[in-house]
Amino acid sequence: MSKKLLSLLLIIGLIAGCSKEKIYKDNLNGVWEVYKYLLNNVDKTNQFKAQHPNYTITFTNSGSFTEFLTNPDSTYVTGTYSFADNDEKIVLENTYNTFVLDTLGDTVYIPHTLKREYTIFNLTKDHVQLRNDTSQLYLDKPNP
Fold first, then answer.
1. Measured between alpha carbons, how far is 127 from 140 in angstroms, rounded to an integer?
2. What is the number of alpha carbons within 13 Å of residue 43 lying toward its C-beta?
3. Which DSSP state fits 2?
4. Among candidates 87, 93, 117, which has minimal Cα distance to 25?
5. What is the pLDDT of residues 18-35, one digit of tens each?
6. Maximum pairwise Cα distance, the chain
């Protein structure tokens, strides 16, 4: 009898975990803008917005993200996101290339993977706070 109860509790736990991730993905889905930025607990919102005018990050239900940066050129950073630590953290992962010349003078592309991890706070369909060791991003969805 106790094995059946344990199995049932395990199944319920797995379903609840999957539901939490689905809810998080549904809530994250869409375009987000930074309305407040703290660096080492000091408000640096104006500096962030001056360095990254028109910054947005877009999340999809399929687990991808796109960041739009302008400084001074427009750049799109694309990658994937996943959840860690019992869905309390979001991990953004993208690949970028550096370029070097080999001994023959040819350009060689060297791929690098960048992982950024943030603790998620106050996630709703129109607000989220992402915090790491040094910064806190307060994001909301722009009005249509």
1. 5
2. 4
3. H
4. 87
5. 578 888 999 999 999 999
6. 72
Contact (Cβ atoms closer than 8 angstroms) between residue 141 and residue 132: no
Return the exposure string of 37-64: e unless at least 16 CB atoms fall within 10 Å of the residue's CB, then b: bbeeeeebeeebeeebeebbbbbeeeee
Torsion of CA 100, 101, 102, 107, to 10 degrees: 90
List the one residue out of 67, 95, 94, 80 whose CA is nearest residue 25.
Answer: 80
Strand partners, 64: 80
Q: pLDDT exceeding 90 applies to what percent of the chain?
A: 63
pLDDT tens by residue, 87-143: 899 999 999 889 888 888 889 999 999 999 999 999 999 999 999 999 999 999 987
pTM over 0.90: no
